[in-house]
């Protein structure tokens, strides 16, 4: 296309950023030299103490948890936008009109809009994959969420069932116990079973609204609100309560994932929603 060159295109693409996406923080980007991925699966957090023994005695050996390896192929992410004949004719007329000035703003905007849409389209798919994985521990491609011949791709991190502990009482009502039961239990199991200290609890907006509507949350967080609570406490108030009780929650803070991604099925139907699943 007249007026389009690699230098200008690189300059435009270089002006884009990923600030509106969560995935670069949740899953830091890592360069791969091959089209496959591998990861080790095992227990790495527990600090197993040594034994006090007599001098000259044999040293007891500790069990080493076996490591298994998960692997798979890296699929391709792609997107395309087309200019129809009328649009290309319009562009040719614009080129003729601008004469010796191929850098005319209207020419750049003609192709830059599509470039931006494609760039964000790839970022949106990576975001969808990341938020599905962190909320479910897996993701699956179907004809409903992926308009491609690759419609049966599954990635499962094989999180043990014992780590999916759930909650003591449903948050669909107001009798849930997130502050006195569920969060302390998860923190305790993380330390005792896995040797980790959880610092963040991720959830989407709808799930947080359920948590905040629980009766015990309203009562316990009320003193930490900047104004008398007429409704459920907001995120900053709940996190202020958690921070104040650091001995119980060990510095845990809630991170609310507020994101909307639009997916188009093979049939052409578009659906928009938060990739981070409810509850």
Report on this model:
The protein is an alpha+beta fold and 279 residues long. It is 37% helix and 13% strand. The strands form 4 sheets. It has a two-stranded antiparallel ribbon with strand order 1-2. Strand 7 (261-264) and strand 8 form a beta hairpin.
Helix and strand topology:
Blueprint: H1 6-13, H2 23-26, E1 36-41, E2 68-73, H3 85-98, H4 105-136, E3 138-140, E4 154-156, H5 178-194, E5 200-204, H6 205-212, H7 215-221, H8 235-244, H9 246-249, E6 253-257, E7 261-264, E8 270-273
Parallel strand pairs: 5-6
Antiparallel strand pairs: 1-2, 3-4, 7-8
Question: What distinguishing features does this structure have?
Answer:
279 residues, alpha+beta, two-stranded antiparallel ribbon, two-stranded antiparallel sheet, 9 helices
In short:
The longest helix is centred in the middle third of the chain and has 32 residues, at 105-136. 37% of the residues lie in helices and 13% in strands. The radius of gyration is 26 Å and the shape is extended.
Largest sheet entry: 2 strands, antiparallel
C-alpha end-to-end distance: 49 Å
Helix/strand structural class: alpha+beta
Our estimate of the beta-strand percent is: 5-15%
State the shape.
Answer: extended
Low-confidence stretches: none
Number of strands: 8
* SSE order: HHEEHHEEHEHHHHEEE
Percentage of residues assigned to helices: 25-40%
Strand order of the largest sheet: 1-2
Radius of gyration: 26 Å
With helices defined by DSSP (H or I, 4 residues minimum), what is the helix count? 9
Q: Indicate the mean pLDDT.
A: 82
